[in-house]
Design a protein that fits this description.
Glucose Oxidase, domain 1, Aminopeptidase, 4 domains, globular
Length: about 675
């Protein structure tokens, strides 16, 4: 395959330089200067400090307060059409594949240890002091009971020889993972969990971290859960191991009710009489437990700062009003986006591209690495290359400033750090609202700006003190510059844009060689074919925004001709036989991803036991796991590709996967009408 690699590397003949340039990309320098001068990491952090004081569970009083604050701030910035959209959160309404979860609020929760005199002696946890200690979806209770350690709590063996009926169980798993055994089967009165954070290099180092806990949003069994730190749990375990009896009193006033999803939104109208009906969206998610500073008050205030900055610069005449409108959206994570895109198809139809920000402010203490993450391989788009270009510009300028103390655009806030950004340009990964936009139901190209790792995500240590204003400013610039450029796109931008795409295609070709290792000839050929299709499709994606000029079409056609010549050296694709010849198409009446927070459409409709038997969902590939494969298999079911072609494409994306696993999953989707033959 060496000759193939050479052929691929010489396909794109008008690529331009691959090396970073000190000159700003794509936008005129006065626009870059205006954005740099106006964007304020300090303003963003002041807004973050308010939001992080709210316990922002979906459809709760806390997220309502945060949404009202967003709208008030937007209006104070001169964006008069800022408003809150409301949709029922009642536990039964479907928004595409999202079953609305009911509202959940808490008024009071305390956990006390009972002393020798039978009276509360030591307070273990308090909702008023730290709302995170109460697991989401806990219900009211007033229980005094003995504490029993059952280890993980997720298997029957954990309860063998232990009488937990009417008692409190100490578990290392999430409450949601243990309640069916602990409460429903064995009769425990409640759950104390010391579930640990996502695994990173810093896993377990801080034993004072308290993790965000969850219970099932739809169970009819009422129970409650308190979240403990590892240090607290070890203290209990040591005492229980030496035979000490521990009695605790748990009092909870909380529960689920019918409520509303409150989604704040605001629009900067476009200037073009026709194109202003199209929108470029800035997305985040506003929910998460208090404090939830980086996750995701940071993304919420970053897009608010973009809104403030663009609106101010437009009114001051420092930048032109964009030709397309720009919309800003603050929903609950994933479920709120699914709700909005299904309940308001008029908004969905307008959105041409999205810039999504989820965790964009982590300072050095969080150990965060900033990512500019591309959309899925099933949805090629130039918008990802645009974000890459602006991120590389910030990388270069911030490194120059850190190294020498001088740079034209250091993108530094007075109260922030001076470290270089070092943003990673990353392939698609799931885990936030961007996966809803890019799902084949909507197929909206989306840029995803995010921090990972973050050692304090979903814990009591995710506080404003760990947020860096400089990081907020840089994220706002990358997103704001990308969105403003795309909102103004016209055929006049085609030469610069096609050169950018060509340069990125050369880089993608260079990366292709590293993925050949360990593949047989057939799999290498599948990978090459998919890469050539992807690179051409990125060019073609310009056509969704403007009519590609004839001279640019000619250049692209020449590149396509060279592709065909290169394909002569690629072994033919596998001939489909039997079920591999079948063609499936996504059912347009069922819109959305298969899974979201608190509800999984596939598991619900197909059945929990049957869903566990679907082998693709448990498959581990070279570069992805079962959920990754399943996401792209469904995206690729477009009514044109055969099952064999879907299998070959998803194998190119994440590594070889057996054909029968793809067939089995598509057949399962067919039985619940998500796809049709």
């Amino acid at each position: 395959m060496k000759t193939l690699t050479f052929a691929l590397a010489t396909i794109f003949v008008f690529a331009g330089s691959l090396f970073p340039q000190s000159k700003p990309p794509l936008l005129a320098e006065p626009v870059i200067a205006a954005l740099n001068n106006e964007l304020s990491g300090e303003t963003a952090k002041r807004n973050l400090e308010f939001i992080s004081r709210q316990h922002r569970m979906r459809a709760s009083r806390g997220i309502r307060a945060a949404a009202e604050f967003i709208v008030e701030q937007a209006k104070s910035y001169g964006i008069d059409n800022a408003q809150i959209l409301q949709f029922p959160a009642d536990g039964k309404t479907f928004y595409g594949t999202q079953k609305a979860r009911p509202a959940w609020n808490a008024d009071f929760a305390e956990l006390w240890e009972i002393g020798a005199d039978g009276k509360p002696a030591i307070r273990i946890a308090s909702w008023d002091a730290m709302p995170l200690v109460l697991a989401q979806d806990s219900e009211s209770a007033n229980v005094t009971a003995e504490l029993i350690d059952v280890g993980t709590g997720t298997s029957d063996n954990d309860y063998a020889g232990k009488d937990v009926r009417g008692k409190l169980v100490l578990v290392s798993a999430q409450p949601e993972a243990v309640y069916r055994l602990a409460v429903e089967k064995y009769g425990a009165a409640g759950i104390l969990s010391y579930a640990q954070n996502q695994r990173t290099a810093w896993f377990g180092e801080n034993d004072n971290l308290i993790r965000w806990g969850h219970l099932d949003s739809f169970t009819t069994t009422k129970t409650f859960g308190f979240m403990l730190s590892l240090k607290q749990a070890r203290g209990f375990q040591t005492r229980l191991a030496r035979g000490e009896k521990i009695t605790l009193k748990a009092e909870v006033r909380a529960g689920r009710t019918t409520g509303t999803y409150d989604i704040a939104t605001a629009v900067i109208p476009g200037s073009d009489l026709t194109l202003k009906e199209e929108e470029i969206a800035f997305s985040c998610h506003l929910d998460h437990p208090r404090p939830g500073a980086n996750d995701n008050a940071s993304g919420a205030v970053a897009i608010l700062e973009v809104a403030r900055t663009l609106n101010k610069l437009i009114k001051e005449g420092k930048i032109e009003r964009p030709r397309r409108s720009i919309r800003f959206i603050w929903p609950p994570e994933i479920e709120g986006t699914l709700t909005l895109l299904n309940a308001r198809p008029d908004i969905t139809r307008r959105i041409k591209a999205t810039i999504h920000m989820d965790m964009v402010g982590g300072g050095p203490e969080t150990k965060a690495v900033f990512h500019v993450t591309r959309g899925p391989a099933s949805l090629p788009s130039f918008v990802n290359d645009v974000a890459d270009a602006f991120a590389e510009f910030v990388n270069e300028q911030s490194y120059q400033y850190a190294s020498t103390g001088t740079a034209r655009y250091p993108f530094v806030s007075f109260e922030g750090g001076k470290e270089p950004l070092n943003a990673r340009l990353a392939d698609f990964s799931q885990g936030s609202d961007h996966e809803v936009y890019t799902d084949s139901s909507f197929a909206i190209p989306t840029i995803y700006l995010n921090d990972w790792p973050d050692r304090y995500i979903h814990t009591n240590f995710d506080t404003p003190s760990n947020i860096d204003p400089t990081k907020l400013k840089r994220a706002a610039f990358i997103g704001g510059a990308s969105g403003y450029f795309v909102a103004n796109l016209s055929a006049g931008d085609a030469p610069a844009l096609s050169s950018l795409i060509a340069a990125r295609n050369l880089r993608r070709t260079a990366h292709l060689t590293a993925r050949y290792e360990g593949l047989d000839v057939s799999e290498k050929a599948d990978l090459t074919r998919f890469q050539l299709w992807y690179q051409q499709a990125v060019y073609d994606s310009m056509g969704a925004f403007f009519a590609i000029p004839l001279n640019i079409q000619a250049e692209i056609a020449k590149a396509r001709d060279d592709q065909v010549k290169g394909m002569a050296e690629v072994p033919p694709a596998t001939v489909a036989v039997g079920d591999a010849r079948l063609i499936f198409k996504r059912n347009s009446a069922i819109k959305g991803t298969m899974g979201a927070f608190g509800y999984n459409y596939f598991t619900d409709k197909y059945g929990e036991e049957r869903a566990r038997s679907v082998r693709l969902l448990r498959f581990q590939g070279l570069r992805g796991s079962g959920g990754d494969y399943a996401y792209e298999v469904l995206n690729l079911a477009d009514g044109k590709r055969s099952v064999q072609q879907i299998r070959d494409a998803v194998s190119a994306i994440y590594g070889p996967v057996p054909l029968d696993l793809v067939i089995e999953y598509l057949r399962a989707l067919e039985t619940i009408s998500v796809v049709q033959m």
